[in-house]
């Protein structure tokens, strides 16, 4: 039984790796900009590879267009988040639930749903910046019937902050910063979120 489970995990990892390579290859094509938009759209609702990987590849190749790529990435991600919302709102049983099961993130999904009862806006905005799969939050927003305009505004803030940070780093420091972004970005986002939450708490108690 254990060997079967390991084989299943290995197959899934290999599948993800092939998708990663396939995603990166679009940077070398004439359709790279559209590919970035579509990838950002799909990742917010079901696709496993984050758009950052293609954003980084394109920004490394053309640093002067880094912020343009960030805009495209943010727009695709926010629109994709609306599609994820629709999946949760109307198609959770047939589409949303299988997506959550595929990524084995049922516990995260339940925790997110609980967060929405407290402050949906801050949960979505912070999540948009973190390494947590954003599709969990968009689908959960639909299931929990979060106001769609809250989702759009919070997604716009969180996702834009994430992608523009990547663009700014590459525009400012050039290709040499790429390895550090890929290696430490998740750690940096965690620190950022802790500081952000600390700021919210300070405002609440000092205001």
Automatic annotation (TrEMBL):
Domain VTT per the UniProt entry, residue ranges: 49-170
Tagged with keyword Transmembrane helix: yes
Keywords: Membrane, Transmembrane, Transmembrane helix
Transmembrane segments: 34-62, 69-92, 184-206
Pfam families to which the protein is assigned, alphabetical: VTT_dom (PF09335)
GO CC terms: plasma membrane
UniProt entry tagged with the keyword Transmembrane helix: yes
InterPro entries (UniProt xref): DedA_domain, VTT_dom
Protein name, UniProt field: VTT domain-containing protein
Species this chain originates from: Candidatus Scalindua arabica
Phylogenetic classification of the source organism: Bacteria, Pseudomonadati, Planctomycetota, Candidatus Brocadiia, Candidatus Brocadiales
């Amino acid at each position: 039984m254990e060997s079967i489970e390991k084989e299943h995990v290995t197959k899934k990892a290999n599948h993800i790796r092939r998708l990663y390579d396939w995603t990166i290859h679009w940077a070398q094509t004439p359709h790279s900009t559209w590919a970035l938009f579509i990838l950002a759209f799909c990742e917010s609702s079901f696709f496993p590879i984050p758009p950052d990987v293609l954003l980084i590849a394109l920004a490394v190749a053309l640093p002067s267009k880094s912020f343009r790529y960030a805009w495209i990435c943010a727009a695709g991600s926010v629109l994709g988040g609306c599609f994820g919302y629709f999946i949760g709102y109307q198609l959770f049983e047939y589409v949303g639930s299988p997506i959550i099961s595929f990524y084995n993130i049922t516990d995260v999904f339940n925790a997110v749903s609980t967060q929405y009862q407290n402050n949906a806006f801050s949960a979505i905005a912070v999540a948009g910046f973190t390494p947590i799969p954003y599709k969990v939050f968009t689908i959960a927003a639909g299931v929990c019937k979060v106001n769609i305009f809250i989702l759009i505004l919070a997604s716009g803030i969180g996702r834009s902050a994430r992608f523009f940070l990547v663009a700014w780093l590459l525009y400012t420091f050039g290709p040499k910063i790429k390895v550090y972004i890929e290696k430490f970005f998740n750690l940096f986002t965690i620190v950022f979120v802790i500081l952000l939450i600390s700021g919210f708490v300070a405002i609440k108690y000092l205001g």
